[in-house]
Specification:
This protein is an alpha/beta fold. About 45% of the residues lie in helices and about 15% in strands. The chain starts with a strand and ends in a 5-residue tail after the last helix.
């Protein structure tokens, strides 16, 4: 199957744009993206991150996007599954309703959050996020596929109930799992979930190792040794990275430098918000040890010297992309060669002017996508 493409969106809202304008701008990119051949539109769920992301209610935004489009698939990328964020039965209901309204175009991505602002704001215990994510997946898929659903878990009890509506797609929409650490890549595979990965300060050779771990997890799921969560295994690999396309390499690099570095530095700050609150991750903190192995992978981010980050080095290592359509095509082929099935350019990032975002979407759709069809 040919490489597919989707628009990934954090939905930033930096001056001079208002939140109203920023949300409308994202709708503009979705409509243009469908016209130009993008296969997916994905958006995140974030909370309390100020200008970095106003995508706090994707269950409200995505039906609006669905009504403005007719072909591209609509992706939750992702819904946060720990129960303090979202009741799993309510997630099953709202996602099924969206699948009905968009005529079976829903892709259901899931995650657990790596932001302390989000966790503390909702009273989420970081020691329980992975276990609750696993339970929520069981509850949601049971609600979608059983006439009478019930569940008796460690964290959640559901007495026998008719959970309605059921999704249009049978047995249910494709399931995806966000992965950052090597371990989460493996678990996504063992769960039989499609992979949602990214390249934030992750060179492609490191990403390739993580994708291989995911593939080994998928093999375990197919052999009956994993823990598949849905009625079928989704083994597609999707990855997103920051991308900007312009007429020339020089123009693209100039447009991208500021917004990309702002995104990277703010993302690392969000990730490190957990390390600042989980003392054992940070050896400079004199505090009681908290044993949360599932967040061990955050340790390397503590040592990142934000002031020493160099845009040219990051761009040269293919962790972000800026260039003419010809350069972007060459870069994407590296992702395709290591087994990526769906490439998700994040074309709208931080304070990139909207007109430049729309031009980037246009150039990507007119010149990059056709090279892979």
């Amino acid at each position: 199957m040919a490489l597919q493409f989707g628009l990934m969106n954090e939905i930033p809202s930096y001056p001079p744009y208002t939140e109203h304008e920023s949300l409308k701008h994202i709708v503009d990119t979705a409509v243009l993206g469908e016209e130009l051949g993008f296969d997916y539109f994905w958006t995140v769920e974030h909370h309390f991150l100020n200008e970095f992301s106003v995508s706090t209610a994707p269950e409200s935004l995505l039906p609006y996007i669905a009504a403005k489009t007719s072909r591209m698939r609509i992706g939750h990328g992702v819904r946060l599954l720990p129960f303090a964020y979202n009741n799993p039965v309510r997630l099953a209901e709202s996602a099924a309703t969206l699948d009905l309204l968009c005529d079976g175009r829903l892709e259901f991505g899931t995650g657990r959050s790596i932001s302390w602002d989000e966790m503390a704001g909702f009273g989420v215990n970081p020691e329980e996020t992975r276990a609750q994510q696993q339970e929520a997946l069981d509850i949601i898929t049971t609600a979608w596929t059983q006439d009478v659903a019930s569940y008796d878990g460690q964290f959640y009890k559901l007495p026998p109930r008719h959970v309605i509506p059921k999704p249009l797609q049978k047995p249910h929409p494709p399931l995806w799992g966000a992965a950052t650490s090597p371990d989460s890549h493996r678990i996504a595979g063992e769960n039989g979930l499609g992979l949602l990965s990214f390249t934030l300060l992750t060179p492609l050779d490191v990403l390739k190792v993580s994708i291989d771990l995911y593939r080994s997890g998928i093999a375990s799921a197919r052999a009956g040794q994993g823990n598949p969560k849905g009625a079928f295994i989704n083994e597609r690999v999707a990855t997103f990275t920051l991308v900007h396309v312009a007429e020339t390499d020089e123009e693209a690099m100039e447009n991208m430098r500021g917004p990309a570095m702002k995104y990277i530095k703010e993302s690392i700050g969000i990730i490190n918000s957990v390390s600042r609150q989980v003392p054992y991750l940070n050896p400079n903190q004199d505090a009681a040890k908290m044993d949360i192995p599932s967040y061990d992978y955050l340790k390397p981010f503590i040592d990142v010297d934000l002031d020493s980050l160099n845009y040219e080095d990051i761009e040269a290592s293919n962790m972000v992309m800026a260039g003419s359509p010809e350069k972007i095509i060459t870069r994407i082929k590296e992702y395709e060669a290591m087994g990526v099935d769906v490439f998700l350019p994040m074309l709208s990032q931080t304070n990139m002017p909207h007109d430049k975002v729309m031009k980037s979407v246009e150039l990507f759709g007119k010149h990059v996508i056709p090279a892979f069809r």
